Amino acid sequence: MQITETRFKWQDTFDSFSSPLFSANISSAHFDPAPISSFPICFTPVQIMEAKIAPSMLSSDFANLASEAQRMLTFGADWLHMDIMDGCVQAHFVPNLTIGAPVIESLRKHTKAYLDCHLMVTNPLDYVDQLGKAGASGFTFHVEVTKDNWQELVKRIKSKGMRPGVALKPGTPVEDVYPLLEGVDPVEMVLVMTVEPGFGGQKFMPDMMNKVRTLREKYPKLDIEVDGGLGPSTIDVAAAAGANCIVAGSSVFGAPEPAQVISLLRTSVNKARTIC
Ligand code: DX5
Ligand code: ZN
Predict the structure, then answer these.
(1) What is the reported pTM?
(2) N or C: which end of the chain has fewer CB within 10 A?
(3) How much is the pLDDT for 20?
């Protein structure tokens, strides 16, 4: 199948501002409007945030994980979102058990893609070494279980060559992640849960967009990821609020044409980020 997606190239736009050709054009008395009117130049771009579309592999066919991953990348995915849950019912973090480091290690043998690991576990520190060794790229832990040891955790994640992120459940106030975004070793992404963690296919919670908006205003260059219930009918509100990393499970895997859904998610984020 042919993919007809067109990606917006920020760099091209900014390069064109500084190129000699562009300067020559604006200072020329014989300014030819034709090429300009056919090219959507944004003179005051709000900010530069790349869209990252991350299909959640929780909705994939686990028996064919490598080919499912490859399928998503061919369809235009930037990242692969890996939901790691410990099923630790006693501590009531999430009542579901999914994948662990051995699966990440196996998948890593089949792909060089960015593996965006979302840890819904009670003791994330216990998983850092094994996930680093397995080849995880991003390590996003929950703030609710790391209030006391996040500094040590972030250091350890970085030392293992992974990118640290923090996630928050719907009931957790956004202010709880502020300390993790300041100081010498800040996290590099915030994941705002837009459903209760545990399962794919749940209904998007629009109220969570206040958190996204607040974060985007305070941290204009931060990677803000939204996770849960994202798809064609909910992406615009999330993109407008300021999310640039989009996790989507059932809406992508359940679509007859997943490439179209991935493209639509990307277009919505890019549109929201290029308002002049
Ligand atoms: C839920 C997981 C999500 C989930 C998203 O706990 O963190 O990543 O797979 O699935 P959808 O997009 O179907 O809500
Ligand atoms: Zn997730």
Answers:
(1) 0.84
(2) N
(3) 34
